[in-house]
Amino acid sequence: MRLDKYLADCGLGSRSQVKGLLKQKRVTVNGQTETSPKRVIDESQTKVALDGEPLVYEKYLYYLLNKPKGVVSATEDKRFKTVLDLLDERARQKEVFPVGRLDIDTHGLLLLTNNGQLAHAMLSPKKHVAKIYLAQVSGLMDDSDSAYFAKGIELEDFTCQPAHLEILERDEAEQCSLVKITISEGKFHQIKRMVKACGKEVVDLQRLSMGPLQLDGQLQRGEFRRLMPEEREALEIFGVEL
Ligand code: URA
């Protein structure tokens, strides 16, 4: 890869901005000052430094966002704020996008990356990636609902794969329930529709996990962080380049 592209990919600015750094003799390649933007390097082997500080090349970026309510899971939208608006400049520069969608009024774990192969693998129906949600429900859910979830709920347009419904709390006085639901597919409004098929209504929905990734309790709604090395390693199960 050309050195100017490499430097731009490392987040040091646009291609023309990094040319300025080269001109100023601030960049070294394998210890030697380099001024040519055309110099070809091997990003996995060559040691590149700026002002003596080694650079780390990142092809793919991974962000864990605690999505708040009120923002859409898209990269741009005419009416609403998007999840990309909540990330940093680097994410936008590297064209990060959300892996799947959460409804505008759903909050919780959302992975964003520019690794298309990973996104494809995690969203593929063949991979049966488990997604766990915490739902506050208006109405009392019971064992017959759990059995219906386990059997495969029939919606108007499709029959859901067997899913797990765990009842955490039931408030008889308020006629509401707190439940944990695990599904391994991701159809439009799926959880809300499954609960509706049981004659109840989701009033709050939070995603707790997706495959090996869990919501980080330290992240406030709207906050994000990069994946930690062990979380990135956990994504190796998808068998794609990370
Ligand atoms: N199911 C839903 O109904 N909404 C979501 O945002 C995610 C799953």
UniProtKB/TrEMBL annotation:
Any one biological process term the GO annotation gives: enzyme-directed rRNA pseudouridine synthesis
Pfam families xref list: PseudoU_synth_2 (PF00849), S4 (PF01479)
Keyword RNA-binding (UniProt): yes
Residue ranges annotated for the RNA-binding S4 domain, each copy included: 1-61
CDD domains: PseudoU_synth_RsuA, S4
Keyword annotations from UniProtKB, A to Z: Isomerase, RNA-binding
Listed GO CC annotations: cytosol
A GO molecular-function descriptor: RNA binding
InterPro entries according to UniProt: PsdUridine_s_RsuA/RluB/E/F_cat, PsdUridine_synth_cat_dom_sf, PsdUridine_synth_RsuA/RluA, PsdUridine_synth_RsuA/RluB/E/F, PsdUridine_synth_RsuA/RluB_CS, RsuA_PseudoU_synthase, S4_RNA-bd, S4_RNA-bd_sf
UniProt entry tagged with the keyword Isomerase: yes
Top-level taxon: Bacteria
SMART domains: S4
Annotated EC: 5.4.99.-
NCBIfam families reported in the protein's UniProt record: pseudouridine synthase (TIGR00093)
Family designation: Belongs to the pseudouridine synthase RsuA family.
Protein name listed in UniProt: Pseudouridine synthase
Source species: Streptococcus ferus
